[in-house]
């Protein structure tokens, strides 16, 4: 499984940004997908996830601002981020895994993309 994240960039605080992740795998629909992020000087943290039967998971602080979705026909997963804050600035990584338990735990994910940088100006 290869993952390619894109869509990062510079955005003003309060603005939106949509991240995309393209997966090269034949059975994409059977994988659960997640987004994680790592800010400078901080550990990687869970952002959002969607499993193969379309249940979604979010960090409480991001509920209502971030939306994860997937398009199985295109082998894509998206993270729509609205009302961005300076503290959302980080490198965002998409990840994939079989199964659908412990969706917020990074060690459960087997495959990782290269990351895309999100910068939020205040």
Q: What do you see in this structure?
A:
The protein has strands spanning 2-6, 9-12, 17-24, 32-38, 45-50, 56-58, 66-71, 76-81, 90-97, 111-112, 116-121. Strands 2, 4, 5, 6, 9, 10 and 11 form a seven-stranded mixed sheet that branches. The mean pLDDT is 95. The protein is mainly β and 122 residues long. The radius of gyration is 13 Å and the shape is globular. The protein contains no helices and eleven strands.
Strand and helix layout:
Layout: E1 2-6, E2 9-12, E3 17-24, E4 32-38, E5 45-50, E6 56-58, E7 66-71, E8 76-81, E9 90-97, E10 111-112, E11 116-121
Parallel strand pairs: 2-11
Antiparallel strand pairs: 1-3, 3-8, 4-5, 4-9, 5-6, 7-8, 9-10, 9-11
Task: Offer a few descriptive terms.
mainly beta, 0% helix, 122 residues, single chain, globular, four-stranded antiparallel beta sheet, seven-stranded mixed beta sheet
Q: Structural class of the helices, strands and pairings?
A: mainly beta
Radius of gyration over C-alpha positions, nearest whole angstrom? 13 Å
**Helix-residue proportion:** under 10%
Number of separate helices: 0
Largest sheet entry: 7 strands, mixed
Instruction: Write down the overall mean pLDDT.
Output: 95
Distance between the termini: 37 Å
Shape: globular
Which series of helices and strands comes N to C?
EEEEEEEEEEE
User: Uncertain regions: pLDDT < 50 for 5+ in a row?
Assistant: none
Q: What fraction strand?
A: over 45%
According to DSSP, the number of beta strands is 11
């Amino acid at each position: 499984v290869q993952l390619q994240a894109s869509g990062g960039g510079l955005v003003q605080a309060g603005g939106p940004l949509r991240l995309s992740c393209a997966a090269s795998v034949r059975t994409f629909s059977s994988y659960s997908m997640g987004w994680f992020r790592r800010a400078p000087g901080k550990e990687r943290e869970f952002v959002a996830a969607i499993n193969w039967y379309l249940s979604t998971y979010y960090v409480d602080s991001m509920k209502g601002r971030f939306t994860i979705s997937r398009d199985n026909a295109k082998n894509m997963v998206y993270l729509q981020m609205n009302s961005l804050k300076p503290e959302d600035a980080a490198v965002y990584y998409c990840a994939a895994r079989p199964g659908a338990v412990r969706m917020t735990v990074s060690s459960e994910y087997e495959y990782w993309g290269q990351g895309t940088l999100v910068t939020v100006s205040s």
